[in-house]
Amino acid sequence: MSVTGRRERTLLVDLDGTLTDNFDGISRSIRHALAALGAPIPDADGLLSCVGPPLRVSFARLLATADPNRIEEAIALYRERYSVIGWSENVVYEGIAPLLGALVDRGHRLFLCTSKPQPFAERIVARFGIAPHLAGVYGADLAGTLDDKARLVAHLLAREGLAAADCVMIGDREHDVRAANRNGVAAIGVLWGYGSRAELEAAGAAAIVESPPQVVGALERLAAPRANTGVRSTKVVL
Asked: Which active-site residues does the annotation give?
């Protein structure tokens, strides 16, 4: 607790759909992979759901297969384009830069927690000026052992020696919220990305915000954690 009485937290922040909009880079790289495989290519609306979930999950659905060899072939083709140009086809959402500054000024520590492979995540936060606000970057490994975001959150908490009750996840998809809750971490859902209010509510978000400036207020309004659980029972919907 700070001398001002404000509670300082550790924030686990998603990347795609939360800090940046990488839809162009992701969708074009998925189309590149599907075309190379001779698979049907969805329109833009059909690819919106691919922003957020692990890539292996998205390709299993798009290719209608559980064959790991075909999925890994698709991922290799995706990365063929994404590693060169797709990662940079990206834009920081309006209001994110001042939000990150405000959070740091209030004493919060920020860790990136993303399903995007760590090498790409590090490249993106460096390119777009996000890195200076972060205490660390945690992304999936290229082999896929941390594709499950709940496992990634657990890994981050263990590696940094963090108490779940002192942390809050901020993300735009149900995967962010469910991963946080499975680790006893409260989650704030954001509506400027790719998840809907209904999706975030169903996943158990402790708060839902419509714009970046509202994140600060949501953090201040969240109820104190219940003993031994780290899960807040009070919903704050803005």
From this structure: 14
